[in-house]
Design goal:
By secondary structure, the protein is α/β, with parallel strands linked by helices. 32% of the residues lie in helices and 27% in strands.
């Protein structure tokens, strides 16, 4: 593991379609925020924090909890919070509702960032499109762009990607399954 990498679980969403906060929901007997933190740790992150709007139970794999700096204005607020609060040169991000993203794919995003000097972010991509919440970001190249984008009213993390140099890493479609509803969670439980 390298000290220059920090893992961040983005768990600050409202969970409206789920009917409740997703972070504490369990899949295979494990809370989704813990599952995501384990993946980031296994991907080589030297420290893992969770950005959440609710109080979550401490867990040995989680090194800390942060709140969104701007009151929970979407995933971009979470990313900006990570960039602002971290001193790591590389930040790997995983959305709490992406339970099938593998540690290997996250490690690959980090390795591309660490070995390719002209790339700002590496995101996982499948046939369904790219997933900015399963990614690694070069902090020194992204922080000012994210601050400026956010302060000018931008809230879409995908729009932020349009002004950055982004590398897309292809993965299978099922890796980027997003869990937003009780039915989607139940379907994953039955696999």
């Amino acid at each position: 593991m390298t000290d220059c990498v920090e893992g961040v679980v983005l768990a600050g969403g409202l969970g409206t379609r789920m009917g409740r906060d997703k972070a504490g929901l369990e899949l295979a007997g494990e809370a989704l925020y813990v599952r995501a933190a384990r993946r980031l740790s296994a991907a080589g992150c030297s420290r893992v924090v969770v950005i959440s709007r609710s109080d979550l139970a401490p867990h040995p794999v989680v090194d800390g909890f942060w709140r969104d700096l701007h009151g929970g204005q979407g995933p971009l607020d979470g990313l900006l919070t990570a960039l602002e609060n971290s001193s790591a040169s590389v930040i790997s991000v995983l959305g709490v509702d992406l339970p099938k993203v593998t540690a290997e794919s996250l490690r690959a995003t980090r390795e591309i960032i660490e070995t390719t000097s002209d790339v700002d972010a590496v995101v996982l991509k499948s046939d369904g499109g790219r997933q900015a919440l399963a990614s690694s970001w070069r902090r020194d190249r992204v922080l000012d762009a994210a601050r400026n984008f956010f302060s000018s009213g931008g809230r879409s993390i995908h729009r932020l990607l349009e002004v950055l140099v982004v590398h897309e890493l292809d993965v299978a479609d099922d890796v980027l399954v997003n869990v937003n509803t009780p039915e989607q969670l139940a379907a994953l439980e039955s696999e």
